[in-house]
TrEMBL record:
Residues 23-305 form the Luciferase-like domain. Pfam families: Bac_luciferase. SUPFAM superfamilies: Bacterial luciferase-like. To bacterial alkanal monooxygenase alpha and beta chains. This is LLM class flavin-dependent oxidoreductase. PANTHER family: LUCIFERASE-LIKE MONOOXYGENASE. It comes from Reichenbachiella ulvae.
């Protein structure tokens, strides 16, 4: 790598076969403590709803839980789906978190519902058009957090005057324009939506306007990483993620399953393979050496300032080992 890259973790709290949501939440805590020791910069949690396989619906609550069980690592939302909430309530929640854990809380913001349309309607009390208010809602957030809001009739306590950094999330080119216009960091979900990564980054960088919080573009790009002692072992561990992706493609979502020696026949159907190939463009599996090469190539291609990693491995010990190998591959400075 030509420049020092920050490495972070996005943990979706995926529930495993034979396990419960409580187990997934316990794993998030363990993962956070582990990556903090390894020198990761931050851990983010993402808002999803009506998904029995994902445990992070109450994102702000979980952020407080994780921040209270770690000491240094930044903890935040990657992200809060802002159309599901009022800007005032988000300011109060994250203002509270930042008051409790000053200087460690991040607020990533997305415009997608993080769920299906009927659930989005329930969250938004039928106002599905709130997605169109995303730019205005971000500006309202900025106003509520600002000390200049002290003369307003509506104020956020806690929240007003808190320096909670905002990040714009994207999986298409739409949010790239907004992040550039507002002069905010831009995090792209290339781990599941890779096709528009490079056009979005080009739009963001070409249109970026310096702001009070950011003078130059700041790009965060996400990848799936499955590291093991050998390429063969990593490929075997990856079958858990492949099966989960297969469920997404075929409309049969399920819990994260143990790795398998042989994939089901439908996995090899040409249309399925094409869809899975698109999803897995930035899924990197292999030994420490293989992972180093793949990630360095990705960073060279994207020029990213920060690497956001996800890690879908069924066995918890193998998952923790993958964190170790990734840290060694990228030569992170361990904090212990």
């Amino acid at each position: 790598m030509n420049k020092e890259i920050k490495v972070s973790l996005l943990d979706l709290g995926v529930v495993k076969q034979g396990k419960e949501i409580a187990d997934a939440l316990a794993d998030i805590t363990t993962n956070a403590q582990k990556v903090e020791e390894l020198g990761f910069h931050r851990i983010w949690l993402a808002e999803h709803h009506n998904m029995p396989t994902v445990s992070t619906a109450a994102t702000a609550v979980l952020i407080g839980h994780i921040a209270g069980r770690t000491s240094r690592i930044r903890v935040g939302a990657g992200g809060i789906m802002l159309p599901n909430h009022s800007p005032l309530s988000v300011t109060e929640e994250f203002g509270t978190l930042d008051t409790l854990y000053p200087g460690r809380i991040d607020l990533g913001l997305g415009r997608a519902p993080g769920t299906d349309q009927p659930t989005a309607a329930a969250l938004r009390r039928g106002n599905l058009a709130s997605q169109n208010d995303f730019p205005r809602d971000i500006q309202a957030l900025q106003q509520f957090f600002s000390s200049d809001n002290s003369q307003s009739n509506v104020r956020a306590f806690p929240g007003e005057g808190r320096k909670v950094p905002l990040y714009i999330l994207g999986s298409s080119t739409d949010s790239a324009y907004l992040a550039a216009e507002l002069g905010l960091p831009y995090a792209f979900a290339s781990h599941f939506a890779p096709t528009q990564l490079f056009p979005a980054l080009e739009i963001y960088r070409q249109n970026f306007k310096p702001s009070e919080v950011l003078k130059e573009p700041y790009v965060m790009a996400a990848v799936n990483v499955i590291a093991a002692d050998t390429d063969e072992e990593a490929a075997h561990l990856r079958t858990s993620l492949d099966l989960m992706a297969l469920g997404m493609v075929t409309g049969k979502r399920g819990k994260l399953s143990p790795p398998v020696d042989e994939m089901p026949e439908i996995f090899y159907h040409p249309e399925v393979q094409q869809a899975l190939g698109r999803l897995s463009t930035f899924t990197f599996d292999g030994s420490k050496e293989t992972i180093r090469l793949k990630i360095n190539e990705f960073l060279e291609q994207t020029g990213a300032d920060e690497l956001i990693t996800t890690n879908y491995i069924y066995d918890q010990e193998a998952r923790l080992k993958s964190f170790d190998l990734l840290a060694e591959a990228l030569e992170l400075n361990c904090l212990v």
